[in-house]
Structures are given as structure tokens and as C-alpha cells.
TrEMBL record:
Keywords: DNA-binding, Transcription, Transcription regulation. It comes from Actinomyces graevenitzii. The lineage of its organism: Bacteria, Bacillati, Actinomycetota, Actinomycetes, Actinomycetales. GO terms for molecular function: DNA-binding transcription factor activity; transcription cis-regulatory region binding. Residues 19-79 form the HTH tetR-type domain. This is TetR family transcriptional regulator. Residues 42-61 bind DNA. SUPFAM superfamilies: Homeodomain-like, Tetracyclin repressor-like, C-terminal domain. Residues 1-21 are annotated as: Disordered.
Length: 207
């Protein structure tokens, strides 16, 4: 079959050379989710912000759920939490406080911080997206980290860590419960960090 026939037959087209790439779409998606939350964001609105056709977004991500899950997973990966934890463990100290300090600094000072908070808000109500996000974070961040540290019971540890990380973001930035919402970042990190260290302890399930 010729290339012309393929085009007529509806072959799936990829990106144009020199056009908008995947990373630009993800950046546009984070901005849209930050401004309009999950429900108010559409593939077309992301396409307009990215300067591309909505079909290109479907080509890369398939659906809005997939786009959202990839966008928030990429933000989590960019924080390099796994690298922090491994380096702290190798130095013989707990990394919980450092990881939380890094996370809180990101949310409050990085331009992608508002998008991250908006995405966390959506995770509480969008079950399918939540599962996609957990699958990505488990395979890309949690499993490699726990394996490199020789830790067992990965799913349970992951769930426990999530209660702290996402729970803290929800209470501090979404529900804005006082006094936690106004406490200094370093103080919050110092208070919650040891709990994360406990979840990363090799003997968590033996005590």
C-alpha cells in the first residue's frame, strides 16, 4: 500500500518536524490545569495554549485522563525525591525532612507549584486519573527507590507515603487548615519528616 493510500485510509499521523513537541504540550497542560482545574480544562484549551492541533495531543496522550496523569507524574519526577532519599540513606541519615522541605519549596516558589496543587485537588475526585497517577509513580519513583534501598512491602509503603505527601498538600494549600497553613515551611518539614523516615525504615514491619 502506498503512502497516499495510507493517508486516505486514516493512518495515525505523528508530529510535524519542527512543530510543537510533547514537552511543550505538557507545559501547556500544567498551566491549563492550574488555571481551570481538571474539569475546566479541555484538550482544545491545552492545544490553543500549546499552539497545536488537538489531534496532536490525542496522538501523544490519547485522552485528557492520560494527559493529566502524565503531567502530574512528570512534576513529581522533577522533584527528584527518589534521588534525595537514596543519597540521604547512603549518608546514614533520614531524608524525610529534606524531601518535604524540597516539596514545600517547590509548591510555594516554583512557577509549576499552583499546577501541582490543582492536580492534587483533582486526584481526590477523579478515580481513573488517581489510579493512573499511582501506577506511574509506583513504577517510575517508588519501586526503583525502594528496591535500591532493599525495602520490602512496596505497595504498603507507597500508600503510607502518599497519605503524608498528598495529605499535607491538601491540608496546607487546598483546605488551608490553620495553623498548618501558615506555619513556616521548615517547621512543617521538621515535624512531618520523621514520619516519612519511619515509613522508609527497613524494620517498619518487624516492630
Amino acid at each position: 500500500m502506498t503512502s497516499a493510500a495510507n493517508a486516505v485510509g486514516g493512518a495515525k499521523r505523528g508530529p510535524r518536524k519542527g512543530g510543537v513537541d510533547k514537552e511543550q504540550i505538557l507545559a501547556a497542560a500544567r498551566e491549563e490545569f492550574a488555571l481551570h482545574d481538571y474539569k475546566g480544562t479541555t484538550m482544545r484549551s491545552v492545544a490553543r495554549r500549546a499552539g497545536c492541533d488537538a489531534k496532536l495531543i490525542h496522538y501523544y496522550f490519547g485522552s485528557k485522563d492520560e494527559l493529566f496523569a502524565e503531567a502530574i507524574s512528570q512534576v513529581m519526577e522533577s522533584l527528584q525525591i527518589a534521588q534525595w532519599w537514596v543519597s540521604q540513606a547512603e549518608e546514614g541519615g533520614g531524608g524525610g525532612t529534606q524531601v518535604l522541605r524540597q516539596l514545600l519549596n517547590f509548591v510555594e516558589t516554583n512557577e509549576s507549584g499552583p499546577a501541582y496543587v490543582a492536580m492534587v485537588r483533582a486526584l481526590s475526585s477523579e478515580e481513573q486519573v488517581r489510579q493512573m497517577f499511582l501506577d506511574r509513580i509506583t513504577s517510575r519513583v517508588a519501586l526503583p527507590t525502594f528496591t535500591s534501598l532493599g525495602l520490602d512491602q512496596v505497595p504498603v509503603r507507597m500508600n503510607l507515603m502518599t497519605t503524608q505527601l498528598l495529605g499535607l498538600i491538601s491540608v496546607r494549600y487546598i483546605m488551608k487548615f490553620e495553623p498548618l497553613a501558615s506555619m513556616p515551611r521548615d517547621e512543617v518539614a521538621a515535624l512531618v519528616g520523621p514520619t516519612l523516615d519511619r515509613y522508609m525504615s527497613p524494620d517498619l514491619f518487624t516492630k
